[in-house]
Amino acid sequence: MSNTTLELFYYDACPFCQIVLRKIEELKIKVTYCDIFADQTFLKRLVDDTGRRTVPCLYIDNKPMHESSDIILWLEENVDKLEKNS
Ligand SMILES: N[C@@H](CCC(=O)N[C@@H](CS)C(=O)NCC(=O)O)C(=O)O
After folding, report:
1. Domain for residue 75, yes or no?
2. pLDDT by residue (tens digit) across 26-49?
């Protein structure tokens, strides 16, 4: 089982986030969800780490990755190594 920790910074009304959320659901990958509008500490962490408020942003072992297309590609390439939802 993978030890990789995944956290998705997102908000519901963001269409790029929805594309990533659908891919995560399709691949059944275990992710911690960080809604930046529901919890200001998530927004602060995102801005502190990246200097941007842009979502989606996938933290892979605490390293932020922007761009929905890059995130989806990374998920597809690494799905076999990632922890799945039970
Ligand atoms: N090219 C980016 C676009 C992401 C994007 O435009 N996100 C919007 C929300 S839908 C956003 O966070 N805008 C606020 C900002 O960039 O400060 C991607 O595909 O991930």
Report:
1. yes
2. 999 999 999 999 999 999 999 999
The model scores a pTM over 0.90: yes
- Helix, strand and coil in the chain, % to nearest 5: 45, 20, 35
Residue 1 lies in a domain: no
What's 76's domain CATH number? Answer: 3.40.30.10
CA–centroid distance for 80 within its chain: 17
Residue 66 lies in a domain: yes
Going by alpha carbons, the residue nearest to atom 16 of ligand 1 is: 54
| Ligand 1 within 6 A of CB of 79 | no
Residue recorded with tokens 């989606």? 56
